[in-house]
Every structure is written in C-alpha cells, then in structure tokens.
Design goal:
By secondary structure, the chain is an alpha/beta fold. It contains 18 helices and 10 strands. Helix 10 links the parallel strand 3 and strand 4. The model has no long low-confidence stretch (mean pLDDT 93).
Length: 360
C-alpha cells in the first residue's frame, strides 16, 4: 500500500478488502510504503523528509520478501519518484496488480522538474504493460490504462462498508451542508465560495467541514472538525446534504468520487461538479444534482433546503443506489473472483515451467 491507515486510498482500495480475501483462504500481508507519520506531517505542514527517507530505505530492502509471494497488489507504484528500472529490479518476475484511484501519472507528466519528466514520463507505460491486472476506480482511469497498454483491466469503484454507515434522521436546526476530505483538498471549497455566501445571506446555513480543522470561508458559518474513521459517518449524519466541488482539470477528472458515496450511504442527497466519476455516481434529480455553473450550485442547494420532502426522497434513493452498486457486498466478490482466477493462472504457468525444465 502507499499509505497506512490515515491514507484513504490505501485504506479503501486495498486494506478494507483484506478480511474478505483472508476469509476465502488467501494469505494477505499489508505493507505501507509511507507510515502515518508522513501524512500527519503533510496535513500539518511540518517537514516530512525524514519519514520519506525511512520509507525508501524500507522499500529498497524488500526484494527478497517480494519474491516469497505469489502475487503483489501495488497501489499506484512501488517506488514513487524513482525510475522504472529500479522497480523492475525489485519486482523481477513476481506477478503484480496495479491499483489506481486517481490520475497519478499526471504527477510526472506535469512535474515542474524537466529531469523528472524525462526519467519518469514513461514509467507507468512500462509498469502497466507488465502488470498481470490493473484495477481502476473510474472510466477516466480505465481509458488511460487501456491507452497505455494494460493487458487486463478491472473497473472497481472505491466503495464503503455498509455496516459502518447507518442512516439517521435529518437534523433539526439550520440547513447544514457537509464536506469530507483532507486539508489539501479543502481548497476545492473555495471554488463555490460565492454560491455558499449567497445562500448564507438568504437564510441560516452552516458548512460542516470534516477532515480539515481550522478551515474557514469568509461570509459562511463554518464548523471544521478533524477526521476519524470512527466519527466520519456520524458527522455526515449531522448534515442535510453533501457537496463535492471540483475544477474541470485532468487531475480532478481522474478522482473517484468517494465522498459522494459516503453522503449517499447516509441517505443524504449530494450536489457535485458535473465532471469525471461524479457523472456516473449521481443520477440527476434522483439521488442528487450535478452542477456546472455557480448558479447551478445556488439553485440545487436552495432546492434541497426549501424542499425537505424532496431531499429525503433523493437521500433514500441515494442509499439504495449505494446498496446496489457502491458497497463491499457488491465489489468484494468481484475482486475475489478476479484474484482467484489470476492466482490460478499464475499457478498453472509455474507448473508448466517446472514440467518444461531440463531433466523432466
């Protein structure tokens, strides 16, 4: 995994499937590249060079451990910001899966460093062509992986564990809009500052920001709280609706839309920018609304505030959509079947090589 428990991508894309794989009889070992101290420093704005160096020292020493496994499941890449040939040397002939929940290749393609662009621009092309399987979170990433030569691709959205998301009645008090993320992604809220200010002037409104303590937005009442895995669902339950504003960029189009699934799991309608995976997750006027302009944001959030019966109906439909498409109960069997088939093929190839070896 790229991160420890603090990293949402690692926690949701890989770690939450480990119990299901183990129950099926597979031996699973989780190994984060970056420990939680790295992300804690990143979110707090503290130096993180020491944590990063420790991560590289650990990673470069795992060659022997890699070869003791039948299959690796790698989140994005094994050695960030290092060239392909180093990863190739560590991986050797060990089969591996690559997993992407955002447009990670843009980190290299759009790097400000000419050296990084030169050394790393083709890294993912090499990795994808050798991968036994590539797992992606959305259509944008599927088409990217296909164009880069991936041999086998599984589109598997980032999903929730339904057991952790039990809907509660909508709260009393002022209309509360929820947003969940990190201190880094909270900057996207500024893209809809004017619509939120306009709505705040019309009637009482609160913006509940989960995961970015200290966040403020002038002209809007903001309550900003830290994120914990134990509290996230309950905090979303304090909201009347959830939002996911994004700019229309290549990077944003590669995002997975997971926070929308969190809102919907708590039976809350969502309003989101109409780009990327958001267009697949939200059914317009059925589970929430897609916004393309500043006026869309005002109109849709005003509608949810003024028509609580409609908001409740959209929220109930949103919950059913998550139950049918975006939960572990749906995706875990698909993943297990895919990995089981892959391991069977790997075992067959190994047996074939043994039979073909000289002296047999």
């Amino acid at each position: 995994m790229r991160y420890g428990a603090l990293g949402a991508s690692s926690r949701l894309r890989l770690a939450q499937y480990a119990p299901f794989l183990r129950q099926a009889g597979l031996e699973v070992a989780l190994r984060p590249f970056l420990e939680d101290d790295y992300l804690a420093a990143l979110y707090d704005g503290r130096p993180r060079a020491g944590a990063a160096l420790a991560a590289y020292r650990r990673a470069l020493a795992i060659g022997g451990d890699i070869r003791r496994h039948d299959l690796l499941w790698i989140e994005k890449e094994l050695l960030p910001w290092l060239p392909y040939w180093l990863e190739r040397g560590l991986l050797r002939n060990t089969p591996y899966i690559l997993d992407f929940d955002d447009a990670w290749a843009l980190r290299y393609a759009e790097s400000s460093s000419p050296l990084a662009r030169l050394l790393l621009r083709n890294k993912f092309s090499h990795l994808l062509r050798r991968a036994a399987l590539t797992i992606v979170a959305n259509d944008t990433l599927y088409h990217w992986a296909l164009s880069e030569g991936a041999r086998k691709i599984l589109l598997l959205p980032t999903v929730i564990d339904l057991a952790r998301y039990q809907p509660v009645p909508t709260p009393t008090g002022p209309f509360t809009i929820g947003w969940i993320g990190t201190p880094l992604t909270a900057a996207y809220l500024h893209t809809i500052a004017e619509p939120l200010r306009a709505l705040s002037q019309e009637a009482p409104l609160k913006l509940l920001v989960i995961g970015a303590p200290g966040f403020t937005l002038p002209g809007v009442e903001v309550e900003s709280l830290p994120w914990t895995q134990e509290s996230e669902a309950a905090l979303i339950g304090r909201c009347h609706a959830g939002i996911m504003p994004l700019p229309d960029t290549e990077w944003a189009n590669g995002k997975s839309g997971y926070k929308l699934i969190q809102y919907m799991a708590m039976a809350r309608p969502a309003v989101a920018s109409g780009i990327g995976a958001n267009n697949r997750i939200i059914k317009q006027a059925e589970t929430g609304f897609l916004a393309h302009t500043a006026q869309d944001w005002v109109t849709h959030l005003r509608t949810l505030r003024q028509e609580p019966t409609l908001a409740a109906r959209l929220g109930a439909t949103a919950r059913r959509r998550v139950e049918q498409n975006y939960c572990l109960g749906v995706t875990a069997p698909i993943l297990l079947d895919t990995i089981t088939e892959l391991l069977g093929n790997i075992a067959g190839h190994k047996a074939g090589r043994r039979l073909a070896a000289p002296g047999r």
